[in-house]
Predict the 3D structure of the following.
Amino acid sequence: MLWICLLLPDLPLEIFTRGQSSVISGTGAPRFAIASGGHYPLIVAANQAARAAGIVPGQSVSAALVLAPDLVLRDRLLDAETSALAGVAMWLTQFTPMVSLSPPQALLAEIDGSLRLFGGLRVLLQRIVSGIRALGYSLHCKWAPTPTAALLLARAGQGPSVTRSEDLADALAPLSLAHLGASADVVALLRAAGVTTFGAACALPRDGLARRTSGEFVAALDRARGLAPDPQLPFIPPARYEGKLELPVPISEVAALGFAVNRLVHELSGWLLGRGRGVIELSIAMAHERYIGVRTGVPATTLRFALASPAREPAHLTAVLRERLARVALPAPVESIVLASEVTAPLTGRNLGLLPGDEALITVPLLDRLRARLGEDAVLRVAPLSEHRPERAWQAQSWNASASPPRSSTTHPGVKATPLPSGPRPLWLLSEPAPLGATFETTPWVLRDGPERIESGWWDGADIRRDYFTAESPRGEMLWIYRDSRYGDDGEWFLQGMFA
């Protein structure tokens, strides 16, 4: 087996800063820090601009404000960190079904069974690392034959990763016991005895070590070295995706939200790929800044829209979302964004290209672009109805991939719909039949096919009795015409439609 540990060292900070472009992390960006909260708040994390001003983790907030009076502070959100860790786990399921959370800042994944599918360890690691950076997180990545060893190597941040079990002991030996996750009392007891490294602890007599520490500590040493089973609780992805992104500062411009939305779209895409599905309907909710005073806030701006067909490519989803957001007028600055999948459907993988770079050719369907830019009701489709009268055999319908097919107004539940006729039908039907008048009588027409009798509508007062023909006009057009037979062979002739 081969386990990979993904450690997110700046998670408390990045749940806020990943919602804006990399400018927020640069030295010219606003100074931004996370505080612990409480009566004596301490600095938990700070961006590069704040660190350049002398602000470091563990420092009191009052001291930090003396160094940087313009410091932007946000209280630490432990629940948001847990949700963010679960979001990365959802994204990671596209590479392996065995993913496990290791709070507060790490994930473990078994990748041995995925190496051949993704082209080897190097290629798989490149995809994982680049993908997590696209989600907006910094990363420490290590791998080892056991999950505990991979976690220990990632926490230590030093030493090479390990692929063979026989190399585990040597790789773990110089690492500090503080990274093992043992209790502070056990680590302090061993430090007092001069034992500070993993290798030194393993060299002690097992019986004496177990009596003076605990059986769990000794078991952790064995699990890390592969001498004892090291089971991990698997992460179960939710049936519905819902990702939330906090913004470091309220944003008033819709265009500035595109970067934040792109982060959530990548997360959604990984969740969809891991489940073998595509999204049909999406919703995005933007929570607005709360006001001080009489107004406590404004309702969140919520958008819900559908795609023409299931999709999961980030480029496709991002393009549609950007078009849709461009038509929104924000009533107040936005503090956070929630992206959710409302309706999904099975979606198989697409065929790979033969030439290098073919995988990057992602096209956004014109239909999705038009509906996102013009509105849901601006693009319609023509849907057939179970009705013999041609002018009533269709209806305009909103284009929604998840909608059920239309049903005739004369069809009732439990009654089987009448099958549509098999005769020739033109692509273009007139909204109302047009009389041919004297033109039909004075110029030579050729009747190519027919007659086809359609007699219907006696139950609703709009009855018809028509004989339809496929005819060639004097100009060579192929038309669909009929004679109104309610008055015998002397009925008037009408044009109903035109063939392509």
